[in-house]
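Q: I'm writing up a methods section and want to include an example of the input and output format. Could you take the sequence below and give the corresponding predicted structure tokens, formatted cleanly so I can copy it straight into the document?
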Amino acid sequence: MVDIRPEFIEQALQLTRNAEVLPGGVNELAIKLQHAHDTNTPLRIKLGMDPTRPDLHLGHTVVMRKLREFQQMGHQIVLLVGGATAMIGDPSGKSETRPALTKEQVEENAKTYFEQMSKVLDTSKAEVRNNADWLHSMSFTELLKLASQVTVAQMMTRDDFAKRYADGRPIAIHEFFYPLMQAYDSVAIDSDIELGGTDQRFNTLLGRDIQAAYGKKYPQLVMMLPLLEGTDGVVKMSKTYPEHCISLTDSAKDMFGKLMSIPDTLITRYYSLLTDIPQAELIEMDKNIESNSINPRDLKMKLAHMITEEYHGRDGADKAQEDFINVVSNKGIPDDIQDVKIDNEIGILDLLVNLNFVQSKGEAKRLIQGGGVKLEGEKISDMGYVVTPNLNKVLQAGKRKFAKLV
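A: Here is the clean output for your methods example:
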């Protein structure tokens, strides 16, 4: 029985805000923290990233903020680029195999990832590794040894595999190697704690098992972080649903406006996962919302300013708030509205895509169906509406996107 000193229980409690630690919870984490201190050996904190998309969003920052906490306590964060695993493609709960990436795509996406991650944590002090360095050189014999550590029955406990098998959908043999390869990464970098979203439970716990199989005396703990819902309050934030996603590359105006659009039910959850507001304040906030003693809009305004300031600075957040109040509260039009010259007739769907107001015609149709497209204040409901030259009218898409058609 290890005698855990109070200061490390306190550290562990701080680190486990919003997080689940497996196995052993707070006490096991406190023991690791205490041992690291007593032996002057920083813990190695692993975050694996398969750069399948070049943009990060606020949902990704939930885990990144936790990495920052460990970093501030003096521990070593290890950012693992899935150069090998991304070339396989992980279903990660999807019903179909995620498409594999080329080496060039992986490298380009990874570069963009680190540029965006530097907005949250100090990437210059992070250890950056690429699992292609050891997985691509693994011999067939070594691969068989790795595969022998896990049974097919164990693999089939992973939810997405089980569902696809039950539905009669194909599962390629190479897909079983994805969690195995990710687990072996924990051996290669000798991680003490691995962070991940709750959808990575199987993969991260398998890393602990594989470490033990390869002789690590004290295998890694797994710290699971919640998946942040998008602005619709239903589906997890994802670039798959751009209309509900808040990207780190969004302009200050778009970031502020999207944050103001979250449902009231998500206010304290966003505060909890995306800011450092103390738990006691969150509890009080919940009580005030429930008793109607505070206007949820005021809380969202404060939240939107806090988060926008973190990524765009105080001036950017102030200007975004001013624009939002002018456009939404005062029903005005931004001062910096762009002029768009229309030389030829163009369908409204194509125009919305060409202006980058939406990502696709499908998204444009949904926006029109929801009454979100207006020309000079009048809603456009006809999907086949044709915009003609020399209109000299303002086109509005959603609450925050405007263009003067000239």
